[in-house]
Specification:
Length: about 230
């Protein structure tokens, strides 16, 4: 068996839980894009090239609202700021990836990061091909889910009101799953507190960017204490 095929077979079982989530979420994204008047190819192209999960759902609103490039830039930077920390933590793992490295960087989403940072490649499996196929399979799942949703939405007409709530539900589930295994809850509580303050000050339409900026700032300032398990 070739090293690539061996790595693919080893990587697949680790991505099965992500497959279930990405097919559903991608499906919802494809339907949402179609409901806003975008044909399936645009939905698929976004998932193939942008591949940003939560930001793609936000982008739907950005595309259908008044043109504001500065707001779009800030929103994208703030929502995806966590990838800065993902990248730093994966520097050592990716250091010898060679030509695979650009795609590994591009394909780093929350779920892929979770698998790669908590899992070592099985014995006898090339670790860089293992990481590559985990990343690639997750990307395929997201694009496939988007395509299914986009074509389904184009063929069947129904009321899509409320479907964009799927991302809110996803974030709640991710928050709970991250909360349960952790003994240090200060970062999560800080995020909730800062978001609540910004919601009170700026209102529901304008609180996201200042809240995210404050969260990044506070967690950066207290990073050493958080890593040592000291409450903020």
């Amino acid at each position: 068996m070739s090293p690539k095929l061996h790595a693919l077979k080893a990587a697949f079982p680790y991505t099965i839980p992500i497959w279930a989530g990405f097919i559903f979420l991608g499906f919802a994204f494809g339907i949402l894009m179609n409901s806003k008047g975008y044909s399936p190819q645009w939905s698929i192209l976004m998932s193939l090239i942008i591949y940003a999960g939560s930001m793609q759902f936000v982008a739907v609103n950005l595309l259908t609202s008044a043109f504001n490039p500065l707001n779009a830039l800030l929103m994208t930077l703030v929502i995806n700021a966590r990838h800065l920390f993902y990248g730093i933590s994966m520097l050592e793992k990716y250091s010898g990836a060679g030509r695979k490295k650009p795609y590994l960087i591009f394909g780093m989403v929350d779920e892929t990061f979770s698998v790669l940072c908590s899992t070592e490649s099985p014995p006898g499996v090339d670790k860089y091909w293992f990481m590559f196929f985990v990343t690639l399979l997750n990307h395929i799942y997201w694009v496939a889910g988007t395509a299914l949703g986009a074509f389904f939405g184009a063929m069947v007409s129904f009321n899509t009101k409320g479907i964009d709530f799927v991302m809110t539900a996803l974030f709640v589930v991710i928050f709970i799953n991250q909360w349960k295994p952790q003994q240090q809850h200060s970062p999560a509580l800080a995020g909730l507190a800062l978001s609540s303050v910004c919601l009170f000050i700026f209102g529901p339409q304008g609180f996201i960017i200042p809240a995210m900026l404050l969260i990044v700032l506070v967690l950066s300032l207290f990073r050493k204490q958080v890593e040592k398990g000291i409450k903020i």
